[in-house]
Amino acid sequence: MQIVLYGPDGPRWAPRLRTDVPDITVETTSVEDEAVALVATADAFFGAMSPRILASARNLQWIQTPMAGLERYFFPELQAHPVVVTNMRGIFHDMIPDQVLGYILCFARDLHSMIRRQLERRWAFDEVKVLDLPRMTLGIVGLGGIGAGVARRARPHGMRIIATDPRLTECPPEVDALWGPDRLDDLLAASDFVVVCAPETPETRGLFNAERFSRMKQGAYFINIGRGRVVLLDPLVQALESGHLAGAALDVFEVEPLVSDHPLWGMPNVILTPHTAGVGSHEEDRRYEVLLENVKRFVSGQPLHNVVDKHGGY
Which of 275, 282, 305, 311 is catalytic? Predict the structure, then answer.
């Protein structure tokens, strides 16, 4: 087996991969022209694929992407090609849910407001507003690994948990009700917190628009840790300014980085984080382990992990 590691991970991972799977040939490069030449005889490829590189591939059977989100990875030639594509799904299933729980607890205990008052050196006991989570409903849009992780973390806090998902048909034990995407509006109307964990696909792009926000419960909180282009920011700002929504927490945005003069920066009921929900000390090792496991599976003829629907995008 010959695999090409294309990009910055190659120099670090190639020695480990040669040691862990000694019977394979590992080539590395960060130059597209070199990748075009190397992939001509390769069986597998890791890194950012391009039409030029793919056109040179004669024996390519498998591509391992270096990321989990693939909304900008696919192009028509790749979708039409018989090559199997796998992604890094699963490496963020604890880190991102932890951050979501942090958002929820921050709003529930009014910590975001107290931090602002601390910076003002102002003692304001009578202004504190807290939420009773056991009386509240958490709605999760997209119950994949991250969405399920959010549900497991919220369950001990006594919240009622409902979710929508296009693929799951069996409700997991940590969720009280599971519906199809056709019942998204029902979820929005019932939820005190809405957490978007959905990938970006043609169906989800711009899903949260003015109409969707209007269907959310008055005084609800909105959280997006899925994909930025699933949520339109202008109508979100309007829903916050009007008081229809009580607050929002965002880790991903339509355009990144978020421009410094965007109104969201100055809103006291908004928490913004710069696409850091997946950051963790073990990310590098986890990404390598996904690649290593799939290399071993490829060599032994076993089914690969995290196979992606190239037309669905996830």
Answer: 275
Domain 2-91+281-300 classified CATH 3.40.50.720?
yes
CATH number of 95-272: 3.40.50.720
Q: Which residues contact 104 (CB under 8 A, 6 or more apart)?
A: 133, 138, 154, 157, 193, 221, 223
User: DSSP for 45-74?
Assistant: EES---HHHHHH-SS--EEE-SSS--TTT-
CB atoms within 10 A of CB 68: 23
217-268: pLDDT as tens digits: 999 999 999 999 999 999 999 999 999 999 999 999 999 999 999 999 999 9
In tens, the pLDDT along 14-30 reads 999 999 999 999 999 99
**Beta strands of 79-216 (E only): which ranges?**
84-86, 137-141, 160-164, 177-179, 193-196
Can 275 be counted among the known catalytic residues?
yes
